[in-house]
């Protein structure tokens, strides 16, 4: 089997990958339909930014607690329940829209509830990968998860745009698309139930305690390399991961396009994202220098996209944005998975997601306001410049004292691991 896909040789991961693929397509169907629904109801870029912020805000609020929960309960069981928890609000929102009774406050409340389920599901999902595959395949499996997510992004937006247009381009049309997402969560439930539980390698369950969240924060604070990654993905999330807002406003306000063309932009962006994830799957030894370089390429591409004169020239830049974003995020995720002790993995991943995904609610309303009141082009240029400047400053400060080619672990981390375990499990992977 090709090195790019060798994790698929493991039965449990192969089943999980298939279920997740369907769910990821559903996620992107809803993301596109939700953006169109908000614009249909309000016509406001700021309202769209607020909706995205409400979806992502629970990640910012609850990620530390969610990470502690993921380290204290079986991850497979937690994932099962969270699929159900996310299916319910998506189903209600779809039905309300189909019946023509949906109002903006329904969207806000149900999106926030869906975000709560996502906040508790994500740390368990990310750290569950290491229970399905061995250390040799872990980087590959993390990257293939990103490839699955972005395959959904490749298929979902374009399909959503076509479905919405075919069903009349109105509120009712978006409801049917959102309902498909509610159904898609059950494919993951099926995959988890079909797994061979004896072939899993569950991580040690951490002992309950009031300090469990604080211990995770102390662990991250003792790792300069993780702090650099967190700063990098903060700027990427807050000022770069606002594609739903910027692409919607560019498609409608700047280029005068409709739902179909808006959905196509999401699929074009996903082409680059998928390529970035597959390239990351071929890299067995991720490096900090590579992550920083990819993040800076993204900031340049973001600025370029805001300067493009036509719909198609704007679309042509999107694959580069997708490649750089996914290369950065996937490789950073792999570094965290490979260099974090198993009993801390859920908490560290949750803090990573809190910074990466949770930072978007901080930037989304700002970018939405700039896009609506100043202009979509200006929103893209400003966000790209802020992201690039923040990442460059963080990397330069880190490089003054540490090596950008590999992680540096403090004496505290050595004590937590034990000297022999540290030498065998962490340095071997980092080198």
UniProtKB/TrEMBL annotation:
Record keyword Transmembrane present: yes
Major subcellular site: membrane
Transmembrane annotation, as ranges: 15-39, 45-66, 78-99, 226-250, 262-281, 288-305, 311-336, 348-367, 379-399
Keywords: Cell membrane, Membrane, Transmembrane, Transmembrane helix, Transport
Annotated membrane topology: Multi-pass membrane protein
Cellular compartment(s): Cell membrane
GO cellular component term of the entry, any: plasma membrane
GO MF term (any one): transmembrane transporter activity
Pfam families found in the cross-reference section: MFS_3 (PF05977)
Keyword Chloroplast carried by entry: no
Every Major facilitator superfamily (MFS) profile domain range: 12-402
Protein name per its UniProtKB record: Predicted arabinose efflux permease, MFS family
Organism this protein belongs to: Aeromicrobium choanae
């Amino acid at each position: 089997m090709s090195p790019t896909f060798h994790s698929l040789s493991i039965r449990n991961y192969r089943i999980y990958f298939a279920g997740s693929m369907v769910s990821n397509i559903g996620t992107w169907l809803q993301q596109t339909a939700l953006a169109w629904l908000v614009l249909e109801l309000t016509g406001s870029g700021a309202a769209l930014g607020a909706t995205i912020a409400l979806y992502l805000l629970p990640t910012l609020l609850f990620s530390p607690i969610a990470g502690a929960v993921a380290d204290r309960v079986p991850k497979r069981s937690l994932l099962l329940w969270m699929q159900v928890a996310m299916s319910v609000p998506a189903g209600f929102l779809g039905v309300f829209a189909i019946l023509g009774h949906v109002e903006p406050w329904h969207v806000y409340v149900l999106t926030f509830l869906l975000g709560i389920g996502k906040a508790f599901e994500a740390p368990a999902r990310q750290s569950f990968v290491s229970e399905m595959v061995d250390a040799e395949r872990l980087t590959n499996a993390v990257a293939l998860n990103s490839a699955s997510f972005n395959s959904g992004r490749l298929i979902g937006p374009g399909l959503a745009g076509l479905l919405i247009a075919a069903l009349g381009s109105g509120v009712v049309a978006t409801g049917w698309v959102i309902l498909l997402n509610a159904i898609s969560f059950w494919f993951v439930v099926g995959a988890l139930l079909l797994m061979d539980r004896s072939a899993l390698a569950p991580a040690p369950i951490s002992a309950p305690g009031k300090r469990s969240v604080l211990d995770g924060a102390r662990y991250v604070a003792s790792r300069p390399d993780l702090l650099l990654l967190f700063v990098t993905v903060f700027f990427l999330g807050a000022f770069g991961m606002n594609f739903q807002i910027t692409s919607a406003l560019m498609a409608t306000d700047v280029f005068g396009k409709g739902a179909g063309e808006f959905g196509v932009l999401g699929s074009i962006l996903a082409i680059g994202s998928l390529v970035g994830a597959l390239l990351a799957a071929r890299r067995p030894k991720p490096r900090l220098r590579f992550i920083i370089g990819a993040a800076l390429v993204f900031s340049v591409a973001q600025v370029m996209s805001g300067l493009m004169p036509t719909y198609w020239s704007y679309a042509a830049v999107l694959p580069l944005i997708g490649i750089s974003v996914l290369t950065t995020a996937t490789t950073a995720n792999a570094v965290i998975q490979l260099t974090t002790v198993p009993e801390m993995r859920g908490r560290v991943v949750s803090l990573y997601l809190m910074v990466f995904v949770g930072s978007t609610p901080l930037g989304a309303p700002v970018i939405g306001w700039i896009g609506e009141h100043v202009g979509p082009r200006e929103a893209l240029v400003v966000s790209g410049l802020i992201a690039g400047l923040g990442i460059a400053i963080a990397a330069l400060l880190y490089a003054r004292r540490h090596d950008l080619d590999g992680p540096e672990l403090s004496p505290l981390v050595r004590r937590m691991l034990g000297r022999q375990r540290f030498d065998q499990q962490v340095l071997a992977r980092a080198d």
